[in-house]
């Protein structure tokens, strides 16, 4: 009997813990993912982000996906801030939009993508206004895998996987650094990544 009570108590505790984890996930506003095999011989990868439509604390319903793209040497190559309306979908091509105009003019074959869900646009068109992090965006990314080996340049054949963006911890220092790097990138290159209009998602 005591074992049964103990087992039931553990189930209840696990249920509470799981509920807490889900609650934390619902309040996420900072996400990370990766890209690989970003070469002409391979298929293109895609970053997709949706606005879950919960506008209770965001009257206009619009959220911005502030996107920061890094190469595998931890160098920011491009950044942009894309609006997504309530229940809207943003689809970004890794090759033609997120890595098309890198600061060094060399397209990274692999790297990291960071996204902040924000109620304010934070990019070059608004004089580098800071992000106002706010939950409500959810994202996924496709990943191009080289079947033969783990070389970021291939070779073929390639396969494709898709994963949800990873919930991450956004510190004040990290946010400030991302915004300053984006400003620096714009000052040097003048070529932010581009945002796909919602009606043209692929």
Task: Name a few traits of the molecule.
202 residues, alpha+beta, 5-stranded antiparallel beta sheet, 4-stranded antiparallel beta sheet, 9 strands, 24% helix, globular, disordered N terminus
Helices, strands, pairings?
Layout: H1 2-26, E1 30-35, E2 46-51, E3 63-71, E4 76-84, E5 89-93, H2 94-98, E6 111-118, E7 137-146, E8 158-164, E9 166-167, H3 172-189
Task: Outline the structure in words.
By secondary structure, the chain is of the alpha+beta class. It has one domain. Helix content is 24%, strand content 31%. The chain is built from three helices and nine strands. A hairpin with a 4-residue loop joins strand 3 and strand 4 (76-84). The longest helix is centred in the first third of the chain and has 25 residues, at 2-26.
Write a short abstract of this structure:
The chain is α+β, with helices and mostly antiparallel strands. The protein has helices at residues 2-26, 94-98, 172-189, and strands spanning 30-35, 46-51, 63-71, 76-84, 89-93, 111-118, 137-146, 158-164, 166-167.
Q: Rounded to an integer, what's the Rg over CA atoms?
A: 19 Å
Strand order of the largest sheet: 4-3-6-1-9
- What is the tally of helical segments? 3
Largest sheet: 5 strands, antiparallel
Give the CA-CA distance, first to last residue.
58 Å
Estimated structural class: alpha+beta
Number of domains: 1
Mean pLDDT: 82
How many strand segments? 9
Global morphology: globular
Poorly predicted runs are: 1-24
Q: What is the helix fraction of residues, given as a range?
A: 10-25%
